[in-house]
Design brief:
The chain has 5 helices and no strands. It is mainly α. The chain has one domain. The protein is globular.
Length: 125
């Protein structure tokens, strides 16, 4: 196995483990009624992705991108889970909640990515 492939696999394992812990905690604290954990990891993951893309580029750390961006954040964020959650809400007849979830997720994750980039540019300018 190549070193890059190994770093992606290791990062993915760490990210997926972190996502599992967030899901377990959110379900215990907030219950099963709304996919709060999925929304949280997608927003946080987008924020971190925005910051990392700037920091790694400005600090010459692009060699860490496979581990951090593809591996850790790829394993942590859950767009496939997001899709399933949205369809589940829709199929339960919660059309308005499903639409709000989709719209809110897209707006919040794009905003978080932009915020992460802005913060990172300010820190490393």
């Amino acid at each position: 196995m190549s070193p890059t492939l190994f770093s992606v696999a290791l990062g993915g394992a760490l990210g997926a483990t972190a996502r599992y812990l967030v899901n377990s905690t959110a379900t215990r604290v907030m219950g099963h009624g709304f996919p709060y954990a999925t929304l949280f990891v997608n927003v946080l993951g987008s924020l971190l992705m925005g910051a990392l893309v700037v920091v790694l580029a400005q600090k010459g750390g692009t060699r860490f991108a496979p581990f951090l961006m593809t591996g850790v954040l790829g394993g942590f964020t859950t767009f496939s889970a997001f899709s399933l959650d949205a369809v589940t809400l829709w199929e339960r007849g919660q059309t308005g909640l499903a639409a709000g979830y989709v719209l809110g997720t897209v707006i919040l994750t794009l905003g978080a990515l932009f915020t992460g980039m802005t913060l990172a540019r300010g820190w490393f300018a």
